[in-house]
Write a structure and sequence with these properties.
Strand content: over 45%
Largest sheet: 7 strands, mixed
Distance between the termini: 24 Å
Number of strands: 19
Radius of gyration: 15 Å
Strand order of the largest sheet: 3-6-9-12-15-18-19
Shape: globular
Protein backbone atom coordinates (compact mmCIF):
# COMPACT_ATOMS: atom_id res chain seq x y z
CA UNK A 1 0.00 0.00 0.00
CA UNK A 2 0.97 3.64 -0.62
CA UNK A 3 3.91 2.94 -2.94
CA UNK A 4 5.30 5.11 -5.73
CA UNK A 5 6.66 3.50 -8.89
CA UNK A 6 8.17 6.39 -10.81
CA UNK A 7 10.64 7.10 -13.58
CA UNK A 8 11.36 3.51 -14.62
CA UNK A 9 12.00 2.09 -18.07
CA UNK A 10 10.80 -1.45 -18.72
CA UNK A 11 11.42 -2.89 -22.15
CA UNK A 12 11.99 -6.18 -23.99
CA UNK A 13 10.61 -8.48 -21.29
CA UNK A 14 8.94 -11.78 -22.06
CA UNK A 15 7.01 -11.82 -18.75
CA UNK A 16 3.22 -11.74 -18.54
CA UNK A 17 3.30 -8.25 -17.01
CA UNK A 18 5.64 -5.34 -16.35
CA UNK A 19 3.97 -3.50 -13.46
CA UNK A 20 1.68 -5.78 -11.44
CA UNK A 21 -0.28 -4.26 -8.55
CA UNK A 22 -2.45 -6.83 -6.73
CA UNK A 23 -4.44 -6.33 -3.54
CA UNK A 24 -2.59 -3.08 -2.93
CA UNK A 25 -4.20 0.33 -2.53
CA UNK A 26 -3.31 3.98 -3.05
CA UNK A 27 -0.25 3.44 -5.24
CA UNK A 28 1.17 5.88 -7.77
CA UNK A 29 2.55 4.64 -11.11
CA UNK A 30 3.98 7.72 -12.76
CA UNK A 31 6.42 8.87 -15.46
CA UNK A 32 7.41 5.37 -16.57
CA UNK A 33 8.32 4.13 -20.04
CA UNK A 34 6.85 0.68 -20.66
CA UNK A 35 7.36 -0.53 -24.21
CA UNK A 36 8.18 -3.48 -26.48
CA UNK A 37 7.11 -6.12 -23.93
CA UNK A 38 5.36 -9.42 -24.55
CA UNK A 39 2.81 -9.04 -21.74
CA UNK A 40 0.66 -6.43 -19.99
CA UNK A 41 2.28 -3.03 -19.52
CA UNK A 42 0.44 -2.13 -16.29
CA UNK A 43 -1.88 -4.59 -14.54
CA UNK A 44 -4.02 -3.48 -11.59
CA UNK A 45 -5.79 -6.41 -9.91
CA UNK A 46 -8.17 -6.45 -6.91
CA UNK A 47 -7.03 -3.04 -5.70
CA UNK A 48 -8.42 0.43 -5.06
CA UNK A 49 -7.42 4.06 -5.19
CA UNK A 50 -4.43 3.67 -7.52
CA UNK A 51 -3.19 6.36 -9.91
CA UNK A 52 -1.62 5.70 -13.31
CA UNK A 53 -0.31 9.02 -14.60
CA UNK A 54 2.05 10.43 -17.23
CA UNK A 55 3.32 7.07 -18.50
CA UNK A 56 4.31 6.05 -22.02
CA UNK A 57 2.84 2.57 -22.64
CA UNK A 58 3.58 1.39 -26.16
CA UNK A 59 4.06 -1.82 -28.16
CA UNK A 60 3.03 -4.33 -25.47
CA UNK A 61 0.46 -7.14 -25.66
CA UNK A 62 -1.94 -5.04 -23.52
CA UNK A 63 -1.35 -1.45 -22.47
CA UNK A 64 -3.26 -1.20 -19.17
CA UNK A 65 -5.46 -3.89 -17.65
CA UNK A 66 -7.64 -3.10 -14.64
CA UNK A 67 -9.45 -6.08 -13.14
CA UNK A 68 -11.54 -6.38 -9.99
CA UNK A 69 -10.50 -2.87 -8.97
CA UNK A 70 -12.22 0.39 -8.03
CA UNK A 71 -11.36 4.08 -7.87
CA UNK A 72 -8.40 3.91 -10.26
CA UNK A 73 -7.37 7.13 -11.98
CA UNK A 74 -5.80 6.74 -15.44
CA UNK A 75 -4.69 10.21 -16.54
CA UNK A 76 -2.22 11.81 -18.98
CA UNK A 77 -0.83 8.57 -20.43
CA UNK A 78 0.31 7.74 -23.96
CA UNK A 79 -1.26 4.33 -24.71
CA UNK A 80 -0.44 3.36 -28.29
CA UNK A 81 0.46 0.45 -30.56
CA UNK A 82 -0.42 -2.28 -28.07
CA UNK A 83 -1.27 -5.54 -29.81
CA UNK A 84 -4.58 -6.53 -28.16
CA UNK A 85 -5.96 -3.61 -26.17
CA UNK A 86 -4.89 -0.17 -25.10
CA UNK A 87 -7.10 -0.24 -21.97
CA UNK A 88 -8.93 -3.34 -20.76
CA UNK A 89 -11.39 -3.21 -17.83
CA UNK A 90 -12.85 -6.38 -16.35
CA UNK A 91 -15.13 -6.37 -13.29
CA UNK A 92 -13.72 -2.91 -12.58
CA UNK A 93 -15.93 -0.19 -11.13
CA UNK A 94 -15.94 3.58 -10.61
CA UNK A 95 -12.67 4.26 -12.42
CA UNK A 96 -11.82 7.49 -14.25
CA UNK A 97 -9.96 7.36 -17.57
CA UNK A 98 -9.23 10.94 -18.61
CA UNK A 99 -6.94 13.04 -20.81
CA UNK A 100 -4.99 10.12 -22.28
CA UNK A 101 -3.81 9.56 -25.84
CA UNK A 102 -5.31 6.19 -26.81
CA UNK A 103 -4.79 5.14 -30.42
CA UNK A 104 -3.35 2.61 -32.86
CA UNK A 105 -3.95 -0.32 -30.50
CA UNK A 106 -5.46 -3.62 -31.68
CA UNK A 107 -8.62 -2.36 -29.94
CA UNK A 108 -8.25 0.93 -28.13
CA UNK A 109 -10.51 0.02 -25.22
CA UNK A 110 -12.75 -2.82 -24.05
CA UNK A 111 -14.72 -3.34 -20.86
CA UNK A 112 -16.26 -6.60 -19.62
CA UNK A 113 -18.70 -6.66 -16.69
CA UNK A 114 -17.28 -3.26 -15.74
CA UNK A 115 -19.72 -0.58 -14.56
CA UNK A 116 -19.79 3.08 -13.56
CA UNK A 117 -16.47 3.85 -15.20
CA UNK A 118 -16.06 7.31 -16.66
CA UNK A 119 -14.22 8.05 -19.92
CA UNK A 120 -13.58 11.78 -20.28
CA UNK A 121 -11.62 13.96 -22.71
CA UNK A 122 -9.29 11.26 -24.03
CA UNK A 123 -7.71 11.65 -27.44
CA UNK A 124 -8.80 8.78 -29.67
CA UNK A 125 -7.94 8.05 -33.23
CA UNK A 126 -10.38 7.68 -34.86
CA UNK A 127 -13.53 9.15 -33.32
CA UNK A 128 -16.59 10.48 -35.06
CA UNK A 129 -19.60 12.69 -34.41
CA UNK A 130 -17.96 14.46 -31.49
CA UNK A 131 -17.96 11.36 -29.29
CA UNK A 132 -16.07 8.09 -28.96
CA UNK A 133 -18.08 4.89 -28.61
CA UNK A 134 -16.40 2.24 -26.45
CA UNK A 135 -17.47 -1.38 -26.83
CA UNK A 136 -18.06 -3.65 -23.87
CA UNK A 137 -19.62 -6.98 -23.06
CA UNK A 138 -21.55 -8.64 -20.31
CA UNK A 139 -20.42 -12.18 -19.65
CA UNK A 140 -21.53 -15.08 -17.54
CA UNK A 141 -19.39 -17.84 -16.10
CA UNK A 142 -20.39 -21.34 -17.23
CA UNK A 143 -19.05 -24.80 -16.48
CA UNK A 144 -16.88 -26.08 -19.28
CA UNK A 145 -15.49 -29.59 -18.91
CA UNK A 146 -13.73 -29.68 -15.54
CA UNK A 147 -13.42 -25.93 -15.28
CA UNK A 148 -15.24 -22.71 -16.01
CA UNK A 149 -15.20 -20.21 -18.83
CA UNK A 150 -16.54 -16.72 -19.42
CA UNK A 151 -19.13 -16.52 -22.17
CA UNK A 152 -20.14 -13.13 -23.56
CA UNK A 153 -23.92 -12.81 -23.59
CA UNK A 154 -24.51 -9.16 -24.50
CA UNK A 155 -22.66 -6.33 -26.19
CA UNK A 156 -22.98 -2.94 -24.49
CA UNK A 157 -21.51 0.50 -25.14
CA UNK A 158 -20.17 3.49 -23.21
CA UNK A 159 -19.08 6.84 -24.58
CA UNK A 160 -16.38 9.38 -24.10
CA UNK A 161 -18.83 12.22 -24.70
CA UNK A 162 -16.16 14.91 -24.98
CA UNK A 163 -13.04 13.42 -26.56
CA UNK A 164 -10.11 15.72 -27.19
CA UNK A 165 -9.67 16.79 -30.81
CA UNK A 166 -5.90 17.02 -30.41
CA UNK A 167 -3.41 14.69 -28.75
CA UNK A 168 -1.97 15.69 -25.38
CA UNK A 169 1.75 16.35 -25.09
CA UNK A 170 2.48 13.67 -22.49
CA UNK A 171 6.26 14.22 -22.62
CA UNK A 172 5.70 17.87 -21.69
CA UNK A 173 3.81 16.76 -18.55
CA UNK A 174 6.65 14.50 -17.42
Amino acid sequence: HNNSLTENTITLTDDNFCFWIQESNNNLIMKNYVYDNEGIGIWILDSQGNRIQENQINNNLYGISIEGSIFTLVKHNEITNNTNYGIYLKTAYINLITKNNIFDNGQNALFRNAWLNHWWRNYWKPHFLGLKIIKGTIFKVVRHGYGFEEVDILTVYKCDWHPSHNPYDIAEMS
